[in-house]
Amino acid sequence: MKDTAKTSEMRRRQFVALSGALGAGALLSGTGAGVSAAAVPGSAAGDPQCCPCPTDPSPPGSGPSPCPPQHLQPLCGSPTDTDPLWQDVQYCTQGIVPPSGQRPTCLKTMPNYVVLHGKPETPRNYLLLPSCRITGIECPFLVTTTVANYWHEAWENARSGGDVPVQSQYIGLGVNSQSARQLNQLHIHMAGVRASTQRRLQDLEASGRVALQPSQWGDTQYQAAVTGADGSGDRTYRILRLDALTQNLFDLLNLYVVRRFGLDMAGQTLVVVPKMTATGFARAFYVLNSDSSLHDGTNTCDHLLVYS
């Protein structure tokens, strides 16, 4: 990857052009787009033969979404790619053993996604990956109305009582930017966050420093410092509160931050922290975004998430 301004601007223009053609900015308000389809009858979760990558379109919320079309492969990846995480997905969905011979543990296999262990393998380090070939946050297919709602699926798995629950009182979900990640199959980290992170976000909300509408997300008054869990100090995030994960977070980010400020989608990180109180889940989510254009910004979710 080249980190020159010329390359970044070219990638940004490609993303804006393609995402606009695919309907970027179309919101999924009030729908459960891409929520889990039922497992294939007669197949157990984790059975490598159970769930081939879906290819046929279906209405939002009714089952598996289509995969990115072939013309997006330059930005979204080709099914013939050899990325290790993509090979793990193919093993879980199609039974194709990776060239390394190492078979991943398929914790859950559904038509839209698979869940795997993160590294290191701990009770608070899991990954949710699309069953389609999607390299990462830069793929324009992620901002369309037909893409599965991977964030909703990640929360439903990671929450207390979910199929792959994160063993932490406070949960965080995150996606890295293109430059910050090491592997090139979209993966949502399902991990923990520190109690201090949860308190900081609630304090910011109480003081009016958290946007309550997606259109406000990029406003300066809703940018705030949050101390990292890794000892790296404060980082600046744009902070939005949502009452549910029914909207396409990638599309909201693209419309209200990336396109608004002429940024590069590939350079963004995105973190979701469910709001928790003494009585449990408060039915709200803090959605944090950052990038290198912010003062003390970051392009990785790793500063906030706790994996071990």
What does this structure look like?
This protein is an alpha+beta fold and 308 residues long. The chain has a single domain, classed as HIT family, subunit A (2-Layer Sandwich). It contains 6 helices and 10 strands; from the N terminus they run αααβββαββαββαβββ. Strands 1, 2, 3, 4, 5, 6, 7, 8, 9 and 10 form a 10-stranded antiparallel sheet that branches. β6 and β7 (234-242) form a beta hairpin. The chain is globular. 49% of the residues are buried.
Give a short overview.
The chain is of the alpha+beta class and 308 residues long.
Task: Name the descriptors.
single chain; about 300 residues; alpha+beta; HIT family, subunit A; ten-stranded antiparallel β-sheet; about 20% strand; globular
Distance between the termini: 29 Å
Class by helix and strand content? alpha+beta
What is the correct CATH architecture? 2-Layer Sandwich
Strand content: 15-25%
Q: What sort of overall outline do the alpha carbons produce when their principal axes are compared?
A: globular
Give the helices and strands as they follow along the chain. Answer: HHHEEEHEEHEEHEEE
The total of beta strands comes to 10
The number of domains: 1
In helices, the fraction of residues equals 10-25%
CATH homolog superfamily: HIT family -  CDH-like
Count of runs of 4 or more consecutive helical residues? 6
The major β-sheet equals: 10 strands, antiparallel
What is the CATH first-level class name?
Answer: Alpha Beta
Taking pLDDT < 50 over at least 5 consecutive residues as the criterion, the unreliable ranges are: 1-7, 23-62
CATH topology: HIT family, subunit A
Summed over residues and divided by their number, the pLDDT gives a mean of: 85
Radius of gyration: 18 Å
Quaternary state, please? single chain
